[in-house]
Amino acid sequence: MPEFVGLRGGTFGVALADNDEAWKDEVAPEGSPFRPLYDDSIKFNGQPIALVVAGDWETAKFAATLVRVEYRQQAFATDLEAERGNAAEMDKPHQPRGDAATALVRAAVRHEADYVVPTEHHNPMELYASTVVWEGDGRLTVYDKTQGVQNVHKYLCSVFDKKPEDIRVLSPYVGGAFGSGLRPQYQVVLATLAALALKRSVRVVLTRQQMYGLGYRPMTIERVALGAKPDGTLDAVTHEAIAVTSRYEDFSRNDTGWAEQLYKSPNARFSHKLVHLDVSTPCDMRAPGAASGVCALECAMDTWCVAGPIVPVSPLPIPEVPIDEDAVLAAAKRLGWIVAHVDPLILGAETVGAVLVLLLRSTNNDNMRFDLVVDRNGGTDRLPIAL
Q1: Class for domain 3-71+124-213, per CATH?
Q2: Coil, helix or strand at residue 178
Q3: How far is CA 323 from CA 3, 122, 137, 327, in A?
Q4: Does position 368 have pLDDT exceeding 80, yes or no?
Q5: Cα torsion 24, 30, 32, 37: sign
Q6: Which of 53, 78, 144, 180 is the most exposed place for a label (fewest CB within 10 A)?
Q7: Quick one: 372 exposed, middle or buried, by C-beta within 10 A (0-12, 13-18, 19+)?
Q8: What is the CATH number of domain 80-121+218-298?
């Protein structure tokens, strides 16, 4: 006979923590974390509202189709474009320089545009799943898909008011994660709740559709503005990001500070804003912040270079890593990066400059030396690079 764990987690005598601090994991953003099956409020599409447990997967799946739920409809908002006027500024460490607004007005060459980065879901090939083994006397062994067993362990002990020795968390095979496994996902709470309620081992495996209710890279609207002097040097840059977050947590990453590392400008302003929508909280995804922010910045830079005689890498603002601009231009020429309507050296400098800086970001080693080897038209070019 299938067992039903209903809308409130207190059923079957299993108590859940009643305060936000107990539900916060090690990497939780500011706010009030989501509590699976804690109450009857709906926060996002795809939210779990009940759990049916049976002796086999087929029976549990069928029994779940028999559950009937009644909703009281309320107003909601899930459209970033429609709600961007309600964006709230986030505190970020990047301080403005000069007067970017005035410099943009006076710029000889100017480009300003919105770049919309859509929501990107993790959804790795293997489904998220948790197996909770009932060891007796309230002790559990939890097999979970996670990037941090210590995080899940502390989280479960806090949520279910357990001693550290009562719960053991194992994750021998993480599988695809790239940030989606940094926070405990809701299936580990459901599996633990059911195991404690039934005093039996329980496994909860999410469906492919349910995977879309987990963390994701948030949709953002990136507004980038660039301005140059008559000689083509960058004189002003502004970057404003408006990103999605949930109603209950303030998830944000640094989308807008990358121009400060990639390009030198005497006038700069950066801003990161959040729009709270009726969606689940986003999470880290490979290159958080950088993937969205740099994509918008480099798209703007490419468009801007077409508009006039621009040399955006002159010079790069990284004093501890000197860049020989002539060498960069020569390397670009040797690689044969030529595009119609664009000075080949300009495009090459921008491209090679971006590659160098992004490589620098990924390592803290000093005095690195390596060769960039390019196989082109049957021949090989070997370019020595020292960082």
Answers
A1: alpha beta
A2: coil
A3: 66, 36, 64, 8
A4: no
A5: negative
A6: 78
A7: middle
A8: 3.30.365.10
**Average pLDDT of the residues of the chain:** 83
Calpha distance 323→338 (Å, rounded): 22
Helix (H, G, I), strand (E, B) or coil at 22: helix
By three-state DSSP, how is residue 162 classified?
Answer: coil
- Nearest CA to 34 among 142, 159, 150, 157? 159
In the chain, where does DSSP find H-type helix? 20-23, 57-65, 80-83, 100-106, 149-159, 186-198, 258-262, 290-307, 325-335, 344-361
Instruction: Please list, in sequence order, all residues whose beta carbon lies within 8 angstroms of the beta carbon of residue 142, skipping any fewer than 6 positions away.
Output: 130, 131, 132, 133, 152, 153, 156, 167, 168, 169, 170, 188, 191, 192
Element at 249 (helix H, strand E) = strand 249-250
If pLDDT is split at 50, 70 and 90, which confidence band does 350 have?
A: very low
Mean predicted confidence (pLDDT) in 104-117: 94
- Point out the least confidently predicted range of 44-48, 128-132, 153-157, 360-364: 360-364
Exposed, middle or buried, 170 (CB in 10 Å: 0-12/13-18/19+)? middle
C-alpha 331/C-alpha 168 separation (Å) is 55
Q: Considering the entire predicted model, what is its pTM?
A: 0.81
Residue holding tokens 């009281």?
72
Burial of 301 (0-12, 13-18, 19+ CB in 10 A): buried
Question: How far is Cα 141 from Cα 237, in angstroms, rounded to an integer?
Answer: 53
Distance from C-alpha of 320 to C-alpha of 141, rounded to nearest angstrom: 50
Helices 186-198 and 149-159 pack at an angle, to 10 degrees, of: 50
Burial class (CB in 10 A: 0-12, 13-18, 19+), 186: buried
Rounded Cα distance, 179 and 10, in Å? 31
* Helix, strand, coil percentages for the chain (3-state, nearest 5): 30, 25, 45
Residue closest to 217 by CA, chosen among 177, 188, 180 = 180
Q: Give the 3-state secondary structure of residue 28.
A: coil
Looking at the chain, which residues constitute the CATH 3.30.365.10 domain(s)?
Answer: 3-71+124-213, 80-121+218-298
